[in-house]
Design a protein that fits this description.
This protein is α/β, with parallel strands linked by helices. Helix content is 46%, strand content 17%. The chain is built from 13 helices and 12 strands. Helix 2 links the parallel strand 1 and strand 2. Helix 2 packs across helix 11 and helix 3 crosses helix 4. The chain starts with a helix and ends with a strand.
Length: 326
């Protein structure tokens, strides 16, 4: 009887070990391909948030998942090549940060590979999903869309005489085109107008910024990867010409923009990573609503404000989530 019991226990242990082994093998075989259009602090923060959230969900790079990460270095041609290479490898999920990256991966994957995008302002206008609530298809992700009326209220409060708002953006990015269209609508509501300047690549941003001198009272930067990657060059124009520079992401304030009402891109990355983990665990992207963050922080740069000819009140600085003075 004892020998029979020991035999049964041995069988149970063997079955448990086989089960554990199968689980580990399955997880270890998971692959995530992650790409983004260009490096800058907001995208870097989002990327870190994605990797951290995946790890917290059990998908640790090199242990339980293989992460294949590639930057397009600001080149749409390179981004297209990366997307095709990723599609050829057939990973379990592709994570794409920024609108052009998501669109390139969507075209390359042709509906055969799940895609989770991050920091796409308007995924509906970019034709990535049918709606925020019901993406319907092989794509879902997170949006950095923000209520623009609050940004224009901030501009009016800090620079009350400004009526002409210079906007720098890449006219080749659907995400940015949609933002500028919405900015025109919001600006008109409070008697302001938009002066456009387009830059197709990061190297063209300084000239585009200088083209606004004499035409715009302030400069507003949308969440445009091409422009955000070259924020410092816009800040220099703002300082030299005494034109206040506003941003739509808080990281740009730490790089010299005067003010921004935005949210933390690391947190957005974490939300993206949590969605990617759900897909790796079997959820269908089309069933997962596009994620957004519901909190925004005011960031102010006192040193930049002074250099751009703006005096910020004590009450305003006290209301900010973060004040930078360098």
């Amino acid at each position: 009887m004892k020998r029979k019991t020991a035999f049964v226990h041995a069988l149970a242990l063997s079955a448990l070990l086989l089960s554990f082994s199968a689980t580990v093998t399955t997880a270890a075989n998971k692959t995530v391909a992650l790409t983004y259009i260009v490096e800058h602090p907001a995208i870097d923060a989002a990327r870190k948030g994605i990797v951290d959230a995946l790890a917290d969900a059990g998908f640790v790079d090199g242990k339980t998942v293989t992460l294949d990460i590639a930057s397009a270095q600001g080149s749409m041609l390179t981004q297209t090549q990366i997307a095709k290479t990723f599609a050829g490898k057939s990973p379990d999920v592709i994570v794409a940060i920024s609108t052009p990256s998501a669109q390139a991966c969507q075209a390359a994957a042709k509906g055969a590979i799940p895609i989770v995008f991050s920091a796409v302002t308007d995924p509906v206008a970019a034709k990535l999903v049918k709606s925020f609530a019901q993406p319907d298809g092989t794509l879902t992700g997170t949006s950095d869309k923000q209520p623009l009326n609050l940004t224009f209220e901030l501009i009016h409060k800090l620079t009350p005489t400004a009526t002409k708002i210079g906007v720098l953006y890449n006219a080749g990015e659907a995400n940015s085109v949609a933002q500028v269209a919405e900015m025109k609508t919001e600006a008109a509501k409070i008697g302001m107008s938009i002066v456009e300047a387009s830059a197709a690549q990061s190297a063209a941003v300084p000239d585009a910024a200088r083209s606004l001198v004499g035409k715009a009272d302030v400069i507003l930067l949308p969440t445009d990867s091409t422009v955000v990657s070259a924020v410092e060059s816009v800040v220099k124009v703002g300082v030299d010409a005494k034109i206040p520079v506003y941003a739509s992401d808080t990281n740009s304030v730490e790089r010299g923009a005067m003010a921004a009402l935005g949210f933390n891109y690391y947190k957005l990355g974490r939300l993206t990573g949590e969605i990617a983990a759900k897909v790796l665990n079997g959820a269908k992207p089309g069933d997962i609503p596009v994620g957004t963050l519901d909190s925004e922080d005011l960031y102010l740069n006192l040193a930049s404000a002074k250099k751009m000819g703006v005096t910020l009140s004590e009450a305003m600085t006290q209301s900010a989530a973060k004040v930078i003075d360098q």
